[in-house]
Design a protein that fits this description.
about 170 residues; mainly alpha; two-stranded antiparallel ribbon; PBP_GOBP_sf; Odorant-binding protein 8a
């Protein structure tokens, strides 16, 4: 009798075992707080863009155009990784993007700081001439960003952002 119960149990439980083995449960992707902050900034700063413009930016195509310049400034400012008076906050960028675990710090800090210094243009007269939100600041932010993109740090950034956008980070 015990043998018969075991056969009956196997007969009915086998299809259930197959279902569990064939169809793993769907697990929603868990995003880091840093990835969520990147997505929020991206969405907030692309509100006025056309779908085609947004697609280009999501594809890491940063042509020199007014909408791209404003998007870049908005994005980095919202993340609090750009300051209009001093440029990219290199140390904060490295820490925000995972620090030494994810970036070559010896490569990243000089690249970011060098691009800040190389692309900064001071207006004539007293002070820096780079008022908050002014076109000069927006242009500087874009030029510094384009400079960083031309370094290995820029390649890492493009890969990382693609992963974030596609739900892999």
């Amino acid at each position: 009798m015990a043998r018969r119960s075991q056969i009956w149990l196997l007969r009915w439980s086998f299809p259930l075992l197959l279902l569990v083995a064939v169809a793993p449960p769907a697990v929603p992707a868990i995003r880091s707080s840093q990835s969520l902050a990147l997505l929020r900034a991206r969405d907030q700063c692309s509100r006025g863009l056309t779908p085609a413009q947004r697609l280009h930016l999501d594809g890491m195509q940063f042509e020199d155009a007014p909408h791209v310049r404003h998007y870049i400034h908005c994005f980095w400012t919202r993340l609090q990784l750009w300051q209009d008076a001093s440029g990219f906050q290199a140390q904060r960028i490295v820490q925000s993007f995972g620090g030494e675990r994810r970036l070559n710090v010896e490569q990243a800090l000089p690249a970011i700081n060098g691009c800040n210094a190389k692309t900064r243009v001071r207006a004539s007269g007293s002070g820096s001439g780079l008022g908050s939100g002014s076109q000069a600041v927006v242009d500087w932010c874009f030029r510094a960003f384009a400079c960083v993109l031309a370094t290995p740090v820029g390649e890492w950034y493009k890969r990382h952002m693609s992963d974030v956008i596609n739900g892999n980070a």
